[in-house]
Amino acid sequence: MIVEAIMSGVTTIVEMFRSGGIITYIITLIGIYGILISTQKIRYLRKINKGDITEVMDIVVVSMEKGGAIQALKDISSIKNPVSKIIAEALKIGYKNKVEVEEGMEQVFIVELSKMTNGLNTLKTIIELAPFLGLIGTVIGIWMTFKTLGVQTNAVVMAEGIYIALITTIVGLAVAIILLPLHTYIKTLIDDEMDKIELANKMTNWGYGVAKIKVKDNVSCAIEALQEANGIVNTRKVTDEEANIQVSFKPSMLEKSLNNIILEKCNTKSEIVESILKQ
């Protein structure tokens, strides 16, 4: 009984496609293309939505205690989502100045937003276009029906012609009805990821940082250069195997990278061996 009902339904659908003509096939093809876009987009968005921002920040905090920003960058490098990439750019403050870090975060945001929204306009166009194509098919079918009736007046022929004409509208509406919830779901996933990105920007608004720097020569000049720079809170000489200067700074006020501050005034190279950032 069930098998017969299924076979009957399949036969009806096949007959509808045969009767609907070329426009029915066109609507079906763009509908299939829309489903493929939706499936690919949902898989990608669900993949990047798996990572939670609190988990990423917990890794950053633990790593910061172990080896500073460099260690944090290494530990979150395996997490491939927009949030981790934006946090990774924020961790480079000190190695880069405030403007460079902000530009890097903005570039990451633009690239990731493009990936998330790619294909969304095409899907929206298909949803809007499918019913109109169906309507065009219906209008053409009714026009053909009345053209035939002009030669031979027959109620049966008229009813059959209108039935065939309405097939394209049914198919067009079916495509839109199937794709619209998928489009809404995709937008919801994108909005969720955007909320995470906004939260990541707030959570990486570091309050202060402490860096250890190794200067090859002219340490006193390097300390003087750092003390004169904007955003530097405190600078002192240290006796460490890996570093000889420790500097405290405000990331939001750092106009130049720490290495550039030393290079411009003292014309000597330096290396940041550790940078610890706090909120």
Automatic annotation (TrEMBL):
The chain crosses the membrane at residues 16-37, 125-146, 161-186. One of its GO terms (cellular component) is plasma membrane. It is found in: Cell membrane; Membrane. Pfam families: MotA_ExbB. It comes from the Archaea. GO terms for biological process: protein import. InterPro entries: ExbB/TolQ_transport, MotA_ExbB_proton_chnl. Residues 80-198 form the MotA/TolQ/ExbB proton channel domain. It is a multi-pass membrane protein. Keywords: Cell membrane, Membrane, Protein transport, Transmembrane, Transmembrane helix, Transport. Belongs to the exbB/tolQ family. PANTHER family: BIOPOLYMER TRANSPORT PROTEIN EXBB, PROTEIN TOLQ. This is Colicin uptake protein TolQ. It comes from Methanobrevibacter curvatus.
